[in-house]
């Protein structure tokens, strides 16, 4: 992560004449959003760009709504929000616009609003062709190696550092089956905390047929295991309600609680 962060920061701070499009691509759950947050938090980036603006896209994004969101962020008045008005609102500024989780290059058309004055648009995406379509300077978000995978998994699986229930060899095999994806390592790791059914989980992981699946389906299949083979049915029903909220929506506890209550789950 640190190496990728350094590279992206240097691409963003590079010559103003270089492409205004910079991006990172990689599998779902590989850590792209976390990287983008770290980029925004980086002191060099904060010192160089003002404003730093963030928009979350996602597969079913309404791009016009994102234009409105951007207009609000830069306090642009008026009803007629367009590329031109947004561009005028940012004129003379060296800004960084982060577009997180872009799925289609056509979605970028309405947000091509920064000047070629050293301002940058930083994109995270699962689809490399989104970056290629703009000639973006791109970096791949790689998977975690064996050692980093183990470190991340252990933090979540053994929060009390009690390893007594399981041998190192079994933990290593479970970690290997997580495929170097931080999201999967966290989900499976947390599921394993305090449990004793390691051999059962390992056998389930070994049963998965991932070979014929593309990268995206492999991630989903691994996460699905964290859901259906590993969670009790009652918790699964509670869990399903998260799907009723939009991506990156800050779900309020009472909002969720009311949904559960309506279904007689609490
Ligand atoms: N290198 C890492 N170390 C620890 N946790 C990580 C790392 N990369 C990602 N994560 C965590 O894994 C989860 C998925 O990461 P996220 O950035 O949302 O992935 P993506 O945006 O690529 O789908 C998040 O909970 C994130 O905090
Ligand atoms: Mg993301």
TrEMBL record:
- Gene3D superfamilies given in the database record: Helical domain of apoptotic protease-activating factors (1.10.8.430), P-loop containing nucleotide triphosphate hydrolases (3.40.50.300)
A biological process from GO: defense response
The cross-references to SUPFAM superfamilies, in alphabetical order and at most eight, read:
P-loop containing nucleoside triphosphate hydrolases
Gene Ontology terms for molecular function: ADP binding
Where in the numbering of this chain does the NB-ARC domain appear? 2-161
InterPro entries in the cross-refs: Apaf_helical (IPR042197), Disease_R_plants (IPR044974), NB-ARC (IPR002182), P-loop_NTPase (IPR027417)
Q: List the PANTHER family.
A: DISEASE RESISTANCE PROTEIN RP, DISEASE RESISTANCE PROTEIN RPM1
- What is this protein's name? NB-ARC domain-containing protein
Gene source species: Selaginella moellendorffii
Provide the organism lineage as a comma list.
Eukaryota, Viridiplantae, Streptophyta, Embryophyta, Tracheophyta
């Amino acid at each position: 992560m640190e190496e990728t962060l350094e590279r992206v920061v240097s691409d963003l701070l590079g010559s103003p004449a270089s492409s205004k499009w910079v991006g990172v691509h990689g599998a779902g759950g590989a850590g792209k959003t976390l990287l983008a947050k770290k980029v925004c938090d980086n002191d060099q980036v904060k010192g160089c760009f003002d404003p730093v603006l963030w928009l979350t896209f996602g597969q079913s994004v309404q791009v016009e709504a994102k234009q409105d969101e951007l207009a609000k962020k830069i306090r642009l008045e008026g009803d007629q929000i367009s590329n031109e008005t947004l561009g005028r609102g940012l004129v003379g500024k060296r800004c960084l616009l982060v577009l997180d989780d872009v799925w289609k290059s056509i979605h970028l058309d309405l947000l091509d609003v920064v000047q070629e004055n050293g301002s940058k648009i930083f994109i995270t995406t699962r689809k490399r062709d989104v970056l290629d379509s703009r000639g973006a300077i791109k970096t791949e978000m790689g998977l975690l190696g064996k050692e980093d995978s183990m470190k991340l998994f252990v933090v979540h699986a053994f929060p009390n550092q009690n390893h007594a229930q399981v041998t190192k060899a079994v933990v290593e095999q479970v970690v290997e089956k997580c495929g170097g994806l931080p999201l999967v390592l966290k989900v499976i790791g947390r599921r394993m905390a305090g449990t004793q059914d390691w051999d059962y989980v390992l056998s389930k992981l070994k049963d998965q047929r991932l070979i014929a699946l593309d990268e995206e389906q492999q991630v989903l299949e691994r996460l699905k295991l964290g859901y259906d083979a590993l969670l009790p049915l009652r918790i699964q029903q509670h869990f399903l309600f998260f799907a009723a909220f939009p991506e990156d929506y800050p779900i309020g506890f009472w909002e969720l609680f009311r949904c559960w209550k309506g279904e007689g789950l609490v």
